[in-house]
Write a structure and sequence with these properties.
mainly beta; 35% strand; Tumour Suppressor Smad4
Length: 148
């Protein structure tokens, strides 16, 4: 496909100096039922008008794109409307996972990788998110804001 984005186009680096080290705390996949959901406001896009979406995170949500081959077996945040296929977003690109009162992102071995604030993250390793962090799933830019 001519429109397909690959690692060379997104500037994915294979050297450790350009990537973030994994977070020490490994998040659990399920949050206790008595915890209130964490409200996450996402600002999607690179230029105005930005798209704003809200997620109520109880345990985890998959970030990716949906097409005819996608099987939705979990909670899913679909980036298809943001030209995800042409911008290098995998069907199951990353996961946002809750651990107590913190949120972690983990790349699910996506083709074009995930970045936090411009730094490439290692696949299958959790990274803690902070208010205002900028995530890139392929070439789709998302700013994460937590509601206090």
């Amino acid at each position: 496909m001519a429109n397909q984005v690959n690692k060379a186009q997104t500037g994915m680096l294979d050297i450790g100096a350009a990537s973030l080290p994994p977070t020490d705390v490994v998040p659990a996949s399920n949050a206790p039922a008595n915890l209130k959901p964490i409200e996450i406001n996402l600002v999607i896009g690179e230029k105005r008008p930005f798209k704003r979406r809200r997620i109520l995170l109880r345990s985890e949500i998959i970030i990716g794109r949906v097409d005819d081959e996608t099987v939705l077996e979990q909670f899913y945040f679909d980036l298809t409307a943001y030209d995800a296929a042409n911008k290098g977003v995998s069907r199951k690109h990353a996961v946002l996972r809750r651990h107590e009162f913190q949120v972690f992102v983990e790349d699910l071995n996506s083709t074009n990788g995930t970045r936090i604030n411009g730094y490439q993250i290692h696949p299958n390793q959790p990274y803690r998110l902070r208010n205002g962090d900028e995530l890139e799933f392929g070439l789709v830019r998302v700013v994460v804001n937590f509601r206090e």
